[in-house]
Structures are given as C-alpha cells and as structure tokens.
Amino acid sequence: MGTFFSETGWLCLTVTAVLGGIILCKLKRNQGQEGRKVVCLAGLWGGACLLSFSLFWGLILFSLSCFLMYTYFSGQEFLPVDQKAVLITGSDSGIGHALSKYLDELGFTVFAGVLDEKGSGAEELRRTCSKRLSVLQLDITNSQQIRDAHSKVMEKVQNRGLWAVVNNAGILGFPIDGELIPMNQYKRCMAVNFFGAVEVTKAFLPLLRKSKGRLVNISSMSGGVPVEKMAAYSATKAALNMFSAVMRKELSKWGVKVCVIQPGSFQTNIAGTSDLWNTLEKNILDHLTPDLQEDYGQDYIINHRTFLRLLNTYSEPDVSPVLLDVQHAISAKSPFAFYAPGKKSYFWLCFASFSPTGLFDYFSKNSPGFIKDRPRALNKPNWKN
Q: Which positions, given as ranges, span the membrane (predicted)?
C-alpha cells in the first residue's frame, strides 16, 4: 500500500510539474495582466492544498487545478495579427493616442478617430506611424462624422472586414459635488462617454458581426467604485459598463466578443487644460442658485482645482498596462469580459462591491487625495448636522 501511494504521489507530482511548465510557457507568450494574477492565485491554492491535506490528496487537487488552468490558458493564445483592422476613438491624446501607435507597431491596420484631424495629435500619428494607419475626423457626438468615418472604413477594408472597435473617447468634466454640477455638464458627459460610444457601436456592429470580431469599451474604475466629486463621470461609466455587459450576452450568438476595460488612474489629458478648467468653473458659478451660493461658498468651488492637480500626482505615468490589456482583448482567442489595469484597481473594485458600506466609506474618505474642505455652511458654529 505504501508503495502504491508513493508511486501515485510521484505520478501526481510529475503531472503537476508538466502541466505547470506548460502553463508557464503559455503565460510567457500571453502579455495580458490577468494571466499573472491567475497564476499567483493558483500558486497560493497549490500551497494551501499541500498544507491542508496529505501529500497524496494535495497533489491530486493541485494536479486538477493545473489541468483546469491548462484548459483555460489554451484559449489565451493570441490570434495572428494579419493586418486586422481596428477602429479607435479618442486618439488625439492619452490612451487612445498611445494605443493607436502601439497597435500600428504590432502590425494592425489602425483607424485612429480624432476630434481634430488637423491637431497636433493627429499630425504626430501621421508622422510617426506606418501607412497602415489612417486618421479619421471623428467627433463621436456628431452623427454625420460617424457616418463619414464608417464610409471611409468600409472603403479601405472592403472584404477584409473590421476586426475590432475600441470605444476610448471620453471626458471628465469638473470634479465637484454632484449637487453643484450643472445639468449641461451632466448631459455633455453622458453625450460623450455613453451615447457617443453607443452610436459608434451601433454604426460599426454590422462589420463586427461579419468578422466575428471584438467590441472593446474603455470604461473606468470610477464606473464601479463611487468616487466623490465624480457624480457625472462615474454615472456615465457605470452606464457604459452595463451596456457592455448586455451587449456581451446579446452578441455572443453572432460570435462577437465584448470586453470592458476599467483602468485605474493614469496620467492622460482627460482632466483638460487650465483654460478648460476656467470655462467649467465659470459654468458652475453661473448656474448656482442663491441658496447654493450661501451654503457652499465660492471659495469651496474654486478650491476644487486642487483635485484636478492631484489627479496627476496620484496617477500612474505608464499607460502600458492598459495597452497590454486592450491588446489581449482584441487578440486572445478567448478574451476576458473584464479587465482592470492599474495599481489597486482590483482592490478598490472588490472592496466597493463586497465590503460593508460604512467600512468602504470610511476608508475611501481617508485615502490620499481626498479633499478635506467643507462647504461654508458646515463651518458655521450654529450649523446642526
């Protein structure tokens, strides 16, 4: 009996080593961020198995885990590029700009949609990228420009089809208490971050269904984590998340895979320039009612420029985790439905979803970057909270 268990144990150990080696080889070829996390979890699971059970049963369970991981990673190998065509919105700057360059370097045929085809971002793409890349004038809130972009894409891809659409264009707005955000800013955020993405999706879906391609929506961690001062922005990204989830289910019968990317905070131009801040700030002040002016005070609003400056201070300068996840979403045989690139992105998304509300609110208010200013009325001694 002892010999049997010894031989069986060695067999399990050998199978575990072989499967583990194959998985690591597959992981080496897989540049996505998710795979590394899965392997780390598998390692912890294997250690727990060996510590919690006898050697025999521990190796049995770990071998089974390795087999399941092998099956899982078999779908994570990348498809050949073959100059597959990809449309990216919001390519003037930031993630969209970097992604257009990155996919062009990988050999994709890139259609870089920009807000200003004569701007510096568009000119840089023309100057630095290959002839496969085409710059398209594409304001995603302009239905005519969407139709024109569709015609140009159709003309160029012809029978090759369009493999992927990456809805990346987005705006932040002025971060401040939701009560103070004017309705025109709410509507503007929704027009760009949600309705624009929906209209682009609807326009290009026939091409994606034909190629059985990919729809990738760039959302935000703020779409799943309630972040103060981000009522307008977060609401639009939450809407985009749900749209992506529903479309994932509906388009599966056509062979189209839908992925949503929820990045953490990265240094991009989404916060805008000082001139834009002045415009948004003036818009807020112009729409304040007398009661709001009295309760909040003008200084409280002006001090929120600090929040915009802190965005870059606490943001990651390297956007490559986002680029790698988008590459995985459009290239893997079986992409993930959900990605969360960035430090602590998964932590905050899980913490917001599963922790008690009071606990989450306490820790989020005491996290770095939280503005401690109080409205003027709350600083009055006779104010009863």
A: 6-27, 39-72
Catalytic residues: 233
In 268-343, which residue ranges form alpha helices assigned H by DSSP? 274-286, 290-296, 298-302, 305-313, 320-331
Give the C-alpha separation, 46 to 206, whole Å. 45
Does this model's pTM top 0.70? My answer is yes
Token reading at 341: 């690139």
Q: Dump the DSSP string for 32-65.
A: -SHHHHHHHHHHHHHHHHHHHS-HHHHHHHHHHH
Instruction: Kindly give the pairing relationship between strand 85-88 and strand 109-114.
Output: parallel
Encoded tokens for 209: 């269904």
The answer to whether 108 touches 83, Cβ cutoff 8 Å, is: yes
pLDDT at res. 137 = 98
* Other beta carbons less than 10 A from residue 220's beta carbon: 28
Number of Cβ within 10 Å of residue 230's Cβ equals 23
Single-letter amino acid code for the residue at 32: G
Separation CA 98–CA 86 (nearest Å): 14
Collapsing DSSP states into helix, strand and coil, what is residue 275? helix
Instruction: Kindly list the domain boundaries of the chain, sorted by start residue.
Output: 7-74, 85-365
Q: What is the dihedral of CA 233, 236, 242, 247, to 10 degrees?
A: -130
pLDDT in tens, 103-114: 999 999 999 999
pLDDT digits (tens, 9 = 90+) for 192-217: 999 999 999 999 999 999 999 999 99
For the sheet with 214-218, list strands across it. 134-137, 109-114, 85-88, 164-167, 214-218, 257-261, 338-339
Burial class (CB in 10 A: 0-12, 13-18, 19+), 144: exposed
- 85: Cβ contacts below 8 Å, ≥ 6 apart: 108, 109, 110, 111, 153, 156, 157, 160, 161, 162, 163, 164
Four-residue CA torsion sign, 299, 305, 310, 311: positive
For residues 34, 39, 45 and 47, what is the CA-based torsion angle, rounded to 10 degrees?
A: -150
Domain 85-365 - what CATH class? alpha beta
* Greatest distance between any 2 Cα atoms in the chain: 87
